[in-house]
Amino acid sequence: MPSYNPPLRDMQFLMHEVFKVTDAYQAMPQHAEVDADTINAVLEEAGKFAANVTFPLNISGDEEGCHLDKTTHEVTTPKGYKEAYAQFVEGGWPALSCDTKYGGQGLPFVVNSALYEMLNSANQAWTMYPGLSHGAYEALHAHGSPELQAKYLPKLTSGEWTGTMCLTEPHCGTDLGLLRSKAEPQADGSYKITGNKIFISAGEHDFTSNIVHLVLARLPDAPAGSKGISLFVVPKYLVNADGSLGARNGIYCGGLEHKMGIKSNATAQIVMEDAVGELVGQPNKGLQAMFVMMNAARLGVGNQSLGLTEVAFQNALAYAKDRLQMRSLSGTKAKDKPADPIIVHPDVRRMLLTAKAYAEGGRALSTFCALLIDQELNHPDEKVRSDSADLVALLTPIVKAFLTDNGWIATTQSQQVFGGHGFIKEWGMEQYVRDNRINMIYEGTNGVQALDLLGRKVLGNQGASLKKFGKLIAKLVEEEGVNEKMSEFITPVAMLGEQMTKFTTEIGFKGMQNPDEVGAASVDYLRVAGHLVFGYLFARMAQVSLRAIADGNTDPFYVAKLQVARFYFAKLFPETATLMRTARAGGKTLMDSDAALA
Length: 598
Known about the structure:
With 598 residues, the protein is of the alpha+beta class.
């Protein structure tokens, strides 16, 4: 059976020593009173909930799955799931970073991000039920009318109701311009929604009395394509004027998907037959409103793979210390035992350190983005808000794609540490691999994220956002460029930063002549950009660790952090050279392949 220990020490290191979030919050009136003790206390309790309440349900929930009553269209979740959610609500966890105006606790997004990392480590499928609600909350908070906000946000904030996002249809996934769901205006100002949606995570369940679906559909006079999409709120049960629940709405679960992983999350086929909906935002401007939810979900998906990376690493490390197999190549290490533990073998350490580096780099990026979001939403200085928003936009596809690709590498290599036992269900590792696989697919596949990064976030604004990130690297180089102890961490990042400008320009010029060149290079480009970001963050973590050691701190945590950083720069970061070469190879061998793909 697997185990899980919340990585509180690493979270606190990032928040208080690397990013110094409480100093940043001093400039934000909304968070000025948030101190380190408050953050640490919340994280400790969050870790207890994840480890003690949802983690024990992970394997049993995967085995039991969800069950649909096709007569009533009601879904029963696995044993213990509903009760765990009730505890989650009772503890006030859904409201952690929500607006106090609607009953939220108003804590920084940094804290909420850490909560969800731990929940994802403990049980990703369960966590997706409240996780989708947060996205629905964000969309309505940003674009809902005051009436819609008053009707739905207090219940979403408390967790009394949950939310979903209904985008995908059987004939179209990412290309939302093809969707067919229709919205007919009614005399009372509402709309009748008809259509079908698929792959709707947490689309039906027994946790709450109501589910608030955010649905994309077309008005009768809507323009073709993505410019003719509107967003509607379509609840499972209609809501009366006094806030009580009314009649059952014409939206229901027609089937559950049979899946490779996240089996205890109800991935629903949603049918709408004259379902009553209310418009969110402006007509034909639904994508703008939905992107608030989609971007929150993309960051959340990266967090899901981060959680799985961490828990897979923890269990692989424990197994490697205990499992006896062969003798060390450099001589016997455990003389009192018939064989050495496998952790003495270089390749086992390679796999373990790969997972650990991707967990620590991913956590640093997730924390950094969460702080940027706090600044974007709450900082009084307009330039700080604008710069933070630009950086979040640049980093969002990297969080989604780089962290989920790394999660796949980390979970499969952690499984490999177990040898044949990793393939056996009772050890839990094969579930982490299966559960992680979806994260590379949904909220826009990683290929789509790569196109978004290169085409829209970099070339689309002539590299302006990338240059803002480059200034962060330049500032670090200026601080530590003459420090010999930092050179092994600074030099690779500085070199890649310089190469990135030429690399991006080359692809941009090729793309102007043939847009397929951008598509051919984009996946490799995103991974290079991901390593540039990770390299910067590992250099910052090394900087803090070296200073702590120089100040006489003997905590082995700092030594370990430097060892992971050295491994990262020696064994993982160098793949950027190959990636830039394959990106520069262009699209000819891909597109001139009709015979090969006939």
